Amino acid sequence: MVTVGGPDVRPFSGRNKPVSRVDRADGAPETRPLSIDRMASWPTVAPLIARAGRALVVEALRAWVDERRGTPEVADEAACVQWCRTRLAVFLQPSQRRVFNLTGTVLHTNLGRAVLAEEAIAAAVEAMRSPTTLEYDLEGGARGERDDHIAPWLCRLTGAEAATAVNNNAAAVLLVLSELAAGREVIVSRGELIEIGGAFRIPDIMARAGCRLVEVGTTNRTHLKDYAAAIGPDTAAIMKVHPSNYAIQGFTKSVAAADLVPLAREKGVALIEDLGSGTLADLETWGLPHEPTAREAIAAGVDVVTFSGDKLLGGPQAGLLVGRKPLIQRIARNPMKRALRLDKVRLAALEATLRLYADPGRLAERLPTIRSLARPAAEIRPVAERLLPVVQAALGHDATASVAEVRGQIGSGALPVDLLPSFAIAIKAKGLDRIADRFRRLPIPVIGRISDGTLYFDLRTLDDEPAFAAQLDKLHVMAG
Question: DSSP letters along 74-95, please?
């Protein structure tokens, strides 16, 4: 018989049924089969059902019986309930959890990149809670455009004529190439044929977009004449790609976008620039090295600029496209745009993030990404000194902790050769991997990095010192 619509809770049959002792009416003991249904009716199981639901509890009970069939332990109620409680706790724990990113990489791709501003979080929650004007024009009482929520801000902040947004920057590059260059040639310098994390390669994206890559120059040197010589009747665009996750140094030569503008205009081809991490603010304001901004690219005359929303910009994951109105309008009408568009939650968070840039003087105060990047090492050292005795006490005699000067990085491909001076808790021990594992198993997992026989916890991005310190007394439990 097949049970449809729910778990099979029939009693087990066969020689190895779980059994329980019960009293007969005459007082004599007897043994009878213990079914999953009866186990689920134990009073001690009721709290589990209230929390997890009957289906998951029955599944756990069945797993308990299957693993212990034919053994005396199978009918041990207390042991069974405790085992099921532990199993359910693990199963119901969210797979995506809050962690302390103490790796020294501020925008860590594997740890979610940018932390959103409180204003962006509030806007996202509000959008989730209620119907919104996602694609509705209140004034006209008719259908609206979802880009209208972010395009005015992007134009204001970059100087572009028009703007649109998609799921991420890879999608932005795919979309612009698909619309402007499908079936035609796109010229790229060999020194800019990048690969970033997750095997994202510019040549692969071009192939998917249906355009043909034309490589010019060499790995370390490309001249304006190389671009000019490559332009032919099938050329649709010249593409500049910011090598955000590497740097070529020494005997090098590249052509700035501003120098390519006259050539592109003369030949009637589009000039596209992928800024990668991208930024809307001059990082030099906070003592950081200069990173090209979207406004600079637009001012130079680039036709379409693409960049990320969840890296240096400090917002949610998004791919932003700004540029000349006729081209952006074409891109926005491409059928692929619908498959790549942002939902109402990320649009709300993105709009709220962009609004913060209207007051650049307060960005370091309100935007977590800028706050972490701008944090001076002199401010981090006292944090390390306060936490050192707490960490050492939690470690006991298993390891030795100290305060160390370190250098972190921005991450997500931004300014790869520029490091951020910081301070860290440095831990030395024989079993560093085991100690790192204990920190990862804390209620709020702590993620550091192991280098040169030392486990480092860079405190630049520690945003909740009390919560970090409060859980360290559980380290000894994790040792088991």
Answer: GG-HHHHHHHHHHHHHHHHS-S
Q: Which of 453, 344, 351 is nearest to 404 (CA)?
A: 453
Stated as kind and residue range, the H or E segment containing 174 is: helix 169-181
**CB-count burial class (<10 Å; 0-12, 13-18, 19+) for 29:** exposed
Q: Which tokens in the block code for residue 168?
A: 């991420």
Whether residue 303 contacts residue 324, with contact meaning beta carbons closer than 8 Å, is answered with: yes
Query: pLDDT tens digits for the chain (480 residues)?
Result: 333 343 333 333 334 455 444 433 444 443 455 799 999 999 999 999 999 999 999 999 999 999 998 888 888 999 999 999 999 999 999 999 999 999 999 999 999 999 999 999 999 999 999 999 999 999 999 999 999 999 999 999 999 999 999 999 999 999 999 999 999 999 999 988 877 766 678 899 999 999 999 999 988 899 999 999 999 999 999 999 987 666 677 777 889 999 999 999 999 999 999 998 889 999 999 988 888 999 999 999 999 999 999 999 999 999 999 999 999 999 999 999 999 999 999 999 999 999 999 999 999 999 999 999 999 999 999 999 999 999 999 999 889 999 999 999 998 666 665 689 999 999 999 999 999 999 999 999 999 999 999 999 999 999 999 999 999 999 876 665
Q: What is the CA radius of gyration of the chain?
A: 29
Residues 56 and 105 reside in one and the same domain = no
What does the CA dihedral 212, 217, 218, 221 come to, rounded to 10 degrees?
A: -140
- Is residue 426 in a domain? yes
Q: Cα torsion at 11, 17, 20, 24 (round to 10°)?
A: 70
Same-domain check for residues 141 and 194? yes
Same domain, 397 and 328: no
Structure tokens at 353: 């993030």
Q: Tally the domains of the chain.
A: 3
Structural domain boundaries, residue 155: 118-366
Q: How many CA atoms are closer than 13 Å to the CA of 295, on its beta-carbon side?
A: 12
